Amino acid sequence: MTDQPLEFSRTLPWVAVGPEGRRQSLRATEAECAALARRFGIPAVTAFGAELELRVEGGGAIRARGRLQASVVQSCVVTLEPVAQKVEDAVDLRFLPSGREPSDEDPDGPDEIPTERGVMELGEALAEQLSLALDPYPRAPGASLPALEEDAAAPEPGPERPNPFAVLRGGKG
User: Fold this and answer.
1) CB distance 134 to 83 below 8 Å
2) Per-residue pLDDT reduced to its tens digit, 102-138
3) Is residue 66 part of a domain?
4) Are the C-beta atoms of 120 and 12 separated by less than 8 Å?
5) Residues 6+ positions from 165 with CB-CB distance below 8 Å
6) Is the dihedral of CA 35, 124, 49, 11 positive or negative?
7) Which of 33, 100, 110, 152 could crosslink 94 through cysteines, CB 3.0-4.6 Å?
């Protein structure tokens, strides 16, 4: 990890999730949205948040399930025009007790996130998930690449050049 401050930090002590679980609502401020946009290299994040249900699981892990919502502006890959988009994604995370490392046993299971000193970093986990949920190729409505004409794609016929490997055809005898 780096020593740079996180753009969207929301820590929660491990002990704050009791046996009955906990509901957690997270919203980014305007400044945090601007910092996330810089981090992701997009024109804007206009809103970002999540609703989570946290529950203690066997082995002492805490499972966080819910929904992430964001409003973002990305650049069209064809025209570079701004494209406003709504992002919604299911959240399924497992925070591991301090000292426990993620396992590779279940690749289809929830993302496992190690914790330090009994504190979960919910905000960074959600920011990472948002970065993965962004459209990698946003397009403005009606934007398309110019069609290539078949004749333009084919090279012009010209004089045939000699093959530099022709002398090897005689080969071994």
Assistant:
1) no
2) 676 677 778 888 888 889 999 999 999 999 999 999 9
3) yes
4) yes
5) none
6) negative
7) 110
Distance CA 154, CA 160 (A): 16
Alpha-carbon distances of 127 from 70, 72, 154, 166, rounded to whole Å: 10, 13, 46, 59
Domain holding 38, by residue range, is 11-145
Name the 3-class secondary structure at 66.
strand
Instruction: Confirm whether 99 is domain-assigned.
Output: yes
- Our count of domains for the chain comes to 1
Distance CA 61, CA 100 (A): 9
Tokens, residue 123: 């905000």
Does the residue 153 lie in any domain? no
pLDDT tens-place string over residues 46-61: 999 999 999 999 888 9
Q: Is 73 in contact with 86 (CB distance < 8 Å)?
A: no
Does residue 5 sit within a domain?
A: no
The predicted-structure confidence for 140-168, as pLDDT tens digits, reads as follows: 988 887 776 655 556 667 778 888 777 77
